[in-house]
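Morning!

This is the sequence you dropped in the shared folder:
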Amino acid sequence: MLDSSIVSSIGPCVAEVEEQLAKYASNKHCTLVVSGTAALHAALVALGVKANDEVITQSLTFLATCNAISYQQAHPIFMDVEEDSFGICPGQLERFLAQNTYLKDNICINRHSGRIIKACVAMHTLGHIGKINEIQAICKKYHISLIEDAAEAMGSMRDGMTFGKYSDVAITSFNGNKIITAGGGGAIFTNDDTLHNHVQHITKNAKQPHQYEYIHDQIGFNYRMPNLNAALLKAQLELIDQFLINKKELAQQYDNFFDHIPTIEYVKPPPSCDSNFWLNAIKFNSKEERSAFLQETNDAGMSTRPLWKPMHQLIMFKNCQKTKLNITEDLYQKIVTLPSSVTCLK
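The structure's back. C-alpha coordinates below.
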Protein backbone atom coordinates (compact mmCIF):
# COMPACT_ATOMS: atom_id res chain seq x y z
CA MET A 1 0.00 0.00 0.00
CA LEU A 2 2.72 2.50 0.94
CA ASP A 3 4.78 1.48 -2.08
CA SER A 4 1.86 2.31 -4.37
CA SER A 5 1.90 5.97 -3.16
CA ILE A 6 -1.94 5.92 -3.20
CA VAL A 7 -2.67 6.78 0.43
CA SER A 8 -5.28 9.55 0.20
CA SER A 9 -9.01 9.36 -0.49
CA ILE A 10 -8.61 8.12 -4.07
CA GLY A 11 -7.51 4.53 -4.28
CA PRO A 12 -8.57 0.95 -4.88
CA CYS A 13 -9.05 0.00 -1.22
CA VAL A 14 -11.76 2.63 -0.66
CA ALA A 15 -14.02 1.30 -3.42
CA GLU A 16 -13.24 -2.33 -2.58
CA VAL A 17 -14.08 -1.97 1.11
CA GLU A 18 -17.23 0.02 0.33
CA GLU A 19 -18.44 -2.89 -1.80
CA GLN A 20 -17.53 -5.44 0.88
CA LEU A 21 -19.22 -3.47 3.66
CA ALA A 22 -22.39 -2.94 1.64
CA LYS A 23 -22.58 -6.68 1.07
CA TYR A 24 -21.83 -7.49 4.72
CA ALA A 25 -24.54 -5.14 5.95
CA SER A 26 -27.01 -6.23 3.24
CA ASN A 27 -27.29 -2.68 1.93
CA LYS A 28 -27.05 -1.59 -1.69
CA HIS A 29 -24.56 1.26 -1.20
CA CYS A 30 -21.79 2.25 1.22
CA THR A 31 -19.67 5.41 1.36
CA LEU A 32 -16.55 5.50 3.56
CA VAL A 33 -15.83 8.71 5.46
CA VAL A 34 -13.40 9.93 8.10
CA SER A 35 -15.61 9.43 11.18
CA GLY A 36 -19.01 8.37 12.40
CA THR A 37 -19.81 12.01 13.17
CA ALA A 38 -18.97 12.99 9.60
CA ALA A 39 -21.22 10.17 8.42
CA LEU A 40 -24.12 11.50 10.50
CA HIS A 41 -23.55 15.04 9.30
CA ALA A 42 -23.42 14.01 5.64
CA ALA A 43 -26.57 11.91 6.08
CA LEU A 44 -28.46 14.88 7.51
CA VAL A 45 -27.27 17.11 4.67
CA ALA A 46 -28.23 14.53 2.04
CA LEU A 47 -31.73 14.29 3.52
CA GLY A 48 -32.17 18.04 3.32
CA VAL A 49 -31.94 19.03 6.98
CA LYS A 50 -31.36 22.78 7.07
CA ALA A 51 -30.96 25.59 9.59
CA ASN A 52 -33.97 25.91 11.90
CA ASP A 53 -35.33 22.47 11.04
CA GLU A 54 -35.94 20.02 13.87
CA VAL A 55 -34.60 16.50 14.26
CA ILE A 56 -36.05 13.96 16.68
CA THR A 57 -33.55 11.83 18.56
CA GLN A 58 -32.97 10.38 22.01
CA SER A 59 -31.39 12.12 24.95
CA LEU A 60 -29.61 8.89 25.94
CA THR A 61 -26.91 8.95 23.27
CA PHE A 62 -23.30 9.92 22.69
CA LEU A 63 -22.70 13.61 22.03
CA ALA A 64 -21.83 13.03 18.35
CA THR A 65 -25.49 12.42 17.51
CA CYS A 66 -26.48 15.92 18.61
CA ASN A 67 -23.27 17.55 17.40
CA ALA A 68 -24.08 16.46 13.84
CA ILE A 69 -27.59 17.93 14.14
CA SER A 70 -26.10 21.18 15.45
CA TYR A 71 -23.66 21.41 12.53
CA GLN A 72 -26.74 22.02 10.37
CA GLN A 73 -28.03 24.61 12.86
CA ALA A 74 -31.02 22.35 13.39
CA HIS A 75 -32.72 21.70 16.74
CA PRO A 76 -32.89 18.32 18.51
CA ILE A 77 -36.14 17.13 20.08
CA PHE A 78 -35.52 14.50 22.73
CA MET A 79 -37.53 11.30 23.12
CA ASP A 80 -37.33 8.85 26.00
CA VAL A 81 -35.98 5.35 25.44
CA GLU A 82 -37.18 1.82 26.08
CA GLU A 83 -35.87 0.11 29.17
CA ASP A 84 -34.77 -3.05 27.36
CA SER A 85 -33.16 -1.71 24.17
CA PHE A 86 -32.14 1.80 25.38
CA GLY A 87 -33.43 2.94 21.95
CA ILE A 88 -36.20 5.39 21.09
CA CYS A 89 -39.57 4.27 22.48
CA PRO A 90 -41.95 3.92 19.50
CA GLY A 91 -45.00 4.49 21.69
CA GLN A 92 -43.73 7.78 22.99
CA LEU A 93 -42.65 8.86 19.51
CA GLU A 94 -46.16 8.16 18.19
CA ARG A 95 -47.81 10.06 21.07
CA PHE A 96 -45.50 13.04 20.68
CA LEU A 97 -46.17 13.37 16.97
CA ALA A 98 -49.92 12.88 17.36
CA GLN A 99 -50.19 15.53 20.08
CA ASN A 100 -47.63 18.08 18.92
CA THR A 101 -47.54 18.12 15.12
CA TYR A 102 -49.65 18.47 12.01
CA LEU A 103 -49.07 17.72 8.34
CA LYS A 104 -49.17 20.41 5.68
CA ASP A 105 -48.41 19.38 2.08
CA ASN A 106 -46.78 16.21 3.45
CA ILE A 107 -44.48 18.25 5.69
CA CYS A 108 -44.48 17.62 9.44
CA ILE A 109 -44.86 20.88 11.39
CA ASN A 110 -44.27 21.30 15.12
CA ARG A 111 -47.34 23.08 16.55
CA HIS A 112 -45.30 24.73 19.32
CA SER A 113 -42.29 26.03 17.40
CA GLY A 114 -43.73 26.28 13.91
CA ARG A 115 -40.63 24.54 12.59
CA ILE A 116 -40.39 21.62 10.19
CA ILE A 117 -39.54 18.25 11.76
CA LYS A 118 -37.36 16.94 8.97
CA ALA A 119 -35.70 13.79 10.34
CA CYS A 120 -35.42 11.29 13.16
CA VAL A 121 -32.10 9.82 14.30
CA ALA A 122 -32.55 6.49 16.10
CA MET A 123 -29.40 5.35 17.90
CA HIS A 124 -28.60 1.67 18.58
CA THR A 125 -27.25 1.91 22.11
CA LEU A 126 -24.48 -0.46 23.28
CA GLY A 127 -24.83 -2.29 19.96
CA HIS A 128 -28.41 -3.43 20.62
CA ILE A 129 -30.79 -2.69 17.73
CA GLY A 130 -34.08 -1.23 18.91
CA LYS A 131 -37.56 -1.43 17.37
CA ILE A 132 -36.47 0.23 14.16
CA ASN A 133 -39.29 -1.30 12.09
CA GLU A 134 -41.90 0.33 14.34
CA ILE A 135 -40.03 3.63 14.33
CA GLN A 136 -39.89 3.53 10.52
CA ALA A 137 -43.66 3.02 10.26
CA ILE A 138 -44.28 6.06 12.49
CA CYS A 139 -41.78 8.25 10.60
CA LYS A 140 -43.31 7.24 7.27
CA LYS A 141 -46.79 8.15 8.54
CA TYR A 142 -45.56 11.65 9.42
CA HIS A 143 -43.26 12.06 6.37
CA ILE A 144 -40.11 12.23 8.49
CA SER A 145 -36.82 10.87 7.14
CA LEU A 146 -35.18 8.18 9.28
CA ILE A 147 -31.48 7.81 10.01
CA GLU A 148 -30.07 4.91 12.01
CA ASP A 149 -27.13 5.92 14.16
CA ALA A 150 -25.56 2.46 14.16
CA ALA A 151 -22.13 3.72 15.22
CA GLU A 152 -22.02 0.94 17.83
CA ALA A 153 -23.97 -1.75 15.98
CA MET A 154 -21.66 -3.22 13.33
CA GLY A 155 -22.38 -6.97 13.31
CA SER A 156 -25.66 -6.70 15.25
CA MET A 157 -28.97 -7.98 13.91
CA ARG A 158 -32.63 -7.80 14.83
CA ASP A 159 -35.10 -10.37 13.55
CA GLY A 160 -32.31 -11.71 11.36
CA MET A 161 -31.59 -8.36 9.67
CA THR A 162 -28.78 -5.84 9.99
CA PHE A 163 -29.22 -2.07 10.26
CA GLY A 164 -30.26 -0.10 7.19
CA LYS A 165 -33.27 -2.07 5.98
CA TYR A 166 -35.87 0.16 7.63
CA SER A 167 -34.19 3.57 7.32
CA ASP A 168 -33.43 6.06 4.58
CA VAL A 169 -29.80 6.16 5.67
CA ALA A 170 -27.75 4.29 8.28
CA ILE A 171 -24.29 5.14 9.56
CA THR A 172 -21.64 3.30 11.51
CA SER A 173 -18.29 4.12 13.08
CA PHE A 174 -14.81 2.63 12.82
CA ASN A 175 -13.33 4.53 15.72
CA GLY A 176 -10.60 2.72 17.66
CA ASN A 177 -13.06 1.42 20.26
CA LYS A 178 -15.53 -0.08 17.79
CA ILE A 179 -15.96 -3.71 16.63
CA ILE A 180 -13.56 -3.12 13.73
CA THR A 181 -11.48 0.00 13.17
CA ALA A 182 -9.65 1.96 10.53
CA GLY A 183 -7.90 3.95 13.24
CA GLY A 184 -10.93 6.20 12.85
CA GLY A 185 -13.53 6.41 10.15
CA GLY A 186 -17.19 5.83 9.47
CA ALA A 187 -19.57 4.69 6.76
CA ILE A 188 -22.91 5.76 5.28
CA PHE A 189 -25.28 3.05 4.06
CA THR A 190 -28.37 3.43 1.91
CA ASN A 191 -30.49 1.47 -0.54
CA ASP A 192 -31.52 4.63 -2.39
CA ASP A 193 -29.52 5.37 -5.56
CA THR A 194 -30.23 9.12 -5.51
CA LEU A 195 -29.26 9.49 -1.85
CA HIS A 196 -26.09 7.49 -2.45
CA ASN A 197 -25.05 9.70 -5.36
CA HIS A 198 -25.70 12.81 -3.27
CA VAL A 199 -23.67 11.45 -0.34
CA GLN A 200 -20.79 10.57 -2.65
CA HIS A 201 -20.89 14.07 -4.13
CA ILE A 202 -21.01 16.15 -0.95
CA THR A 203 -18.36 14.08 0.84
CA LYS A 204 -15.93 14.84 -2.04
CA ASN A 205 -16.21 18.62 -1.65
CA ALA A 206 -19.18 18.68 -4.05
CA LYS A 207 -16.78 18.68 -6.99
CA GLN A 208 -18.25 18.25 -10.46
CA PRO A 209 -16.49 15.84 -12.83
CA HIS A 210 -14.22 17.68 -15.27
CA GLN A 211 -11.00 16.86 -17.06
CA TYR A 212 -9.08 19.69 -15.38
CA GLU A 213 -11.34 22.45 -13.96
CA TYR A 214 -12.30 22.76 -10.27
CA ILE A 215 -16.07 23.17 -10.36
CA HIS A 216 -18.09 22.90 -7.14
CA ASP A 217 -21.87 23.26 -7.19
CA GLN A 218 -22.68 23.48 -3.46
CA ILE A 219 -21.08 23.50 -0.03
CA GLY A 220 -19.31 20.18 0.34
CA PHE A 221 -17.06 18.43 2.83
CA ASN A 222 -13.64 16.83 2.76
CA TYR A 223 -15.01 13.73 4.44
CA ARG A 224 -13.82 10.77 2.35
CA MET A 225 -11.76 8.06 4.06
CA PRO A 226 -8.12 7.88 2.90
CA ASN A 227 -7.01 4.79 1.02
CA LEU A 228 -4.47 4.03 3.76
CA ASN A 229 -7.18 3.78 6.41
CA ALA A 230 -9.35 1.72 4.08
CA ALA A 231 -6.52 -0.79 3.74
CA LEU A 232 -6.48 -1.21 7.53
CA LEU A 233 -10.26 -1.53 7.56
CA LYS A 234 -10.10 -4.21 4.87
CA ALA A 235 -7.80 -6.30 7.08
CA GLN A 236 -10.10 -5.76 10.08
CA LEU A 237 -13.19 -6.72 8.10
CA GLU A 238 -11.61 -10.09 7.32
CA LEU A 239 -11.50 -10.74 11.08
CA ILE A 240 -14.94 -9.43 12.07
CA ASP A 241 -16.51 -12.86 12.62
CA GLN A 242 -13.84 -13.75 15.16
CA PHE A 243 -14.16 -10.37 16.86
CA LEU A 244 -17.89 -10.98 17.24
CA ILE A 245 -17.35 -14.49 18.62
CA ASN A 246 -14.91 -13.14 21.19
CA LYS A 247 -17.29 -10.31 22.11
CA LYS A 248 -20.08 -12.79 22.77
CA GLU A 249 -17.78 -15.00 24.84
CA LEU A 250 -16.80 -12.01 27.00
CA ALA A 251 -20.47 -11.05 27.40
CA GLN A 252 -21.29 -14.58 28.53
CA GLN A 253 -18.52 -14.44 31.12
CA TYR A 254 -19.91 -11.18 32.51
CA ASP A 255 -23.44 -12.59 32.48
CA ASN A 256 -22.33 -15.70 34.38
CA PHE A 257 -20.37 -13.67 36.91
CA PHE A 258 -23.13 -11.18 37.76
CA ASP A 259 -25.78 -13.88 37.79
CA HIS A 260 -24.52 -14.75 41.28
CA ILE A 261 -24.80 -11.17 42.58
CA PRO A 262 -28.48 -10.42 43.28
CA THR A 263 -27.96 -6.67 43.76
CA ILE A 264 -26.47 -6.17 40.28
CA GLU A 265 -28.26 -6.90 37.00
CA TYR A 266 -26.30 -7.70 33.86
CA VAL A 267 -27.90 -5.82 30.94
CA LYS A 268 -29.01 -8.33 28.29
CA PRO A 269 -29.97 -7.52 24.70
CA PRO A 270 -33.68 -7.00 24.00
CA PRO A 271 -35.76 -9.85 22.56
CA SER A 272 -35.20 -10.51 18.84
CA CYS A 273 -31.81 -8.78 18.94
CA ASP A 274 -28.63 -10.69 18.11
CA SER A 275 -26.23 -8.16 19.59
CA ASN A 276 -22.57 -7.57 18.85
CA PHE A 277 -22.15 -6.83 22.61
CA TRP A 278 -20.10 -3.76 21.72
CA LEU A 279 -20.28 -2.55 25.29
CA ASN A 280 -21.26 -4.61 28.33
CA ALA A 281 -23.25 -2.95 31.08
CA ILE A 282 -24.65 -3.64 34.53
CA LYS A 283 -27.51 -2.00 36.41
CA PHE A 284 -27.62 -1.07 40.10
CA ASN A 285 -30.60 -0.40 42.32
CA SER A 286 -29.64 3.20 43.01
CA LYS A 287 -27.39 6.05 41.95
CA GLU A 288 -25.54 5.74 45.26
CA GLU A 289 -24.65 2.09 44.63
CA ARG A 290 -23.63 2.92 41.06
CA SER A 291 -21.40 5.81 42.17
CA ALA A 292 -19.75 3.76 44.89
CA PHE A 293 -18.94 1.01 42.38
CA LEU A 294 -17.54 3.53 39.89
CA GLN A 295 -15.33 5.09 42.53
CA GLU A 296 -14.03 1.79 43.89
CA THR A 297 -13.29 0.23 40.51
CA ASN A 298 -11.63 3.33 39.06
CA ASP A 299 -9.52 3.70 42.22
CA ALA A 300 -8.37 0.13 41.57
CA GLY A 301 -7.40 0.98 37.98
CA MET A 302 -10.46 -0.57 36.30
CA SER A 303 -11.96 1.49 33.48
CA THR A 304 -15.66 1.48 34.33
CA ARG A 305 -17.91 4.32 33.24
CA PRO A 306 -21.47 5.60 33.67
CA LEU A 307 -23.62 5.96 30.58
CA TRP A 308 -23.23 9.26 28.76
CA LYS A 309 -24.78 12.21 30.54
CA PRO A 310 -28.19 12.68 28.89
CA MET A 311 -28.13 15.33 26.19
CA HIS A 312 -30.90 17.41 27.78
CA GLN A 313 -28.70 17.82 30.86
CA LEU A 314 -25.86 19.40 28.85
CA ILE A 315 -25.69 23.19 28.69
CA MET A 316 -25.85 23.25 24.86
CA PHE A 317 -29.16 21.38 24.73
CA LYS A 318 -30.89 22.24 28.01
CA ASN A 319 -33.52 24.41 26.29
CA CYS A 320 -34.42 21.88 23.58
CA GLN A 321 -37.94 20.49 23.43
CA LYS A 322 -38.30 17.14 25.13
CA THR A 323 -40.81 14.59 26.31
CA LYS A 324 -40.83 13.08 29.76
CA LEU A 325 -37.45 11.36 30.08
CA ASN A 326 -38.04 9.18 33.15
CA ILE A 327 -36.37 6.03 31.78
CA THR A 328 -33.44 8.01 30.37
CA GLU A 329 -32.75 9.65 33.71
CA ASP A 330 -33.22 6.41 35.63
CA LEU A 331 -30.81 4.51 33.38
CA TYR A 332 -28.20 7.25 33.63
CA GLN A 333 -28.32 7.03 37.42
CA LYS A 334 -28.06 3.23 37.59
CA ILE A 335 -26.01 1.92 34.62
CA VAL A 336 -22.27 1.22 34.57
CA THR A 337 -20.44 0.12 31.42
CA LEU A 338 -17.63 -2.39 31.76
CA PRO A 339 -14.31 -2.95 29.95
CA SER A 340 -15.33 -4.70 26.73
CA SER A 341 -12.35 -4.75 24.39
CA VAL A 342 -11.30 -8.05 22.81
CA THR A 343 -8.63 -9.15 20.38
CA CYS A 344 -9.12 -11.19 17.21
CA LEU A 345 -7.21 -14.10 18.70
CA LYS A 346 -9.10 -17.33 19.33
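Headline: The chain has ten helices and 15 strands.

More detail when I'm at my desk.
O.
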